[in-house]
Amino acid sequence: MIGIGAGDPDYVTVQAISALNDTQVFFATDKGDTKDDLVALRRLICERFIEKPGYRFVELPDPKRAVDVPYEQAVNDWHAARARLWAQAIESELPDGATGSFLAWGDPSLYDSTLRILDRVADHVDFEFDVIPGITAIAALTARHRIPLNDIGEPVLITTGRRLRADGLSGAAVVMLDGDCSFRDCAPDTRIWWGAYLGTPDELLVTGTVGEVAEQITEIRAAARERHGWIMDIYLLRAAD
Question: How far is CA 33 from the centre of its chain?
Fold first, then answer.
């Protein structure tokens, strides 16, 4: 598992470059035509940093996640289906003694299901794996906005839009996986630092209070998603004192 950063090829670490050069087969999940550029970026990173040709890409079909069952069951079933497909691919595409890699957007530990799925793959295939950390979307967001992540001596919650809607905001929170613009439910004087496509030529940044910029972010986000067919965004919220 190689973390490749949040979008800018310059975020790829020296450790990751070494791992790229030790890899013979790269596995990539095919999520359809609208996300072809995500696979293309992975290929671009390999072309830029791998010194010798001879590696190859294996694109894996992504099972559809059920929408008519409870959320946790749907995710569990989806992971199980992915694990079966990945195990078959590793057995059939990776020669004995060779190294295969998955390239994780951002860091493999942060709201990425690949590590959990690889644990399940181990139930089907005998293999070992290492994890190379990457620049997170959180690090990219705070760097691009030129702000510290936390107030002095204060904690920061990392959560999802779904949990923000259920639990509300107390203090500061980084919010990921929010297709519903849940920040609109926060108090108008809540500070927000929002970013999308971080580290790419399509990067978008907005900051202000929820009262000032919530609708602006919602409109920009919808237009960007329509234009690209997908969006990766993240934001930091800080409740007013």
Answer: 18
What is the spatial distance between Cα 149 and Cα 208, in angstroms, rounded to a whole number?
A: 16
Query: If you average pLDDT over every residue of the chain, what do you get?
Result: 92
Are residues 171 and 159 in contact, defined by beta-carbon separation less than 8 angstroms?
no
d(CA 30, CA 33): 8
- pLDDT tens across 86-106, in order? 999 999 999 988 999 999 999
Residue 35's pLDDT band, with cuts at 50, 70 and 90, is: low
Helical ranges in 50-200 per DSSP H: 71-93, 114-121, 137-145, 161-167
Phi/psi of residue 166, nearest 5 degrees: -75, -40
| Cβ neighbours for 240, distance < 8 A, ≥ 6 positions apart | 187, 189, 190, 191
Annotate 94-116 with DSSP letters as a single string: S-TT--EEEEESB-TTSS--HHH
* Residues comprising the chain, all counted: 241
Q: Is 89 helix (H, G, I), strand (E, B) or coil?
A: helix
Asked if the model's pLDDT at residue 34 lies above 80, the reply is: no
Short-list 56, 52, 80, CA closest to 66: 80
Helix (H) or strand (E) segment spanning residue 57? strand 56-61
Residue 139 and residue 145 in contact, taking contact as beta carbons nearer than 8 Å: no
Asked whether residue 36 carries a pLDDT value surpassing 70, the answer given is: no
In this prediction, residue 40 has a pLDDT band, given cuts at 50, 70 and 90, of confident
Do the Cβ atoms of 45 and 12 come closer than 8 Å?
yes
Look up residue 58 and give its DSSP letter: E
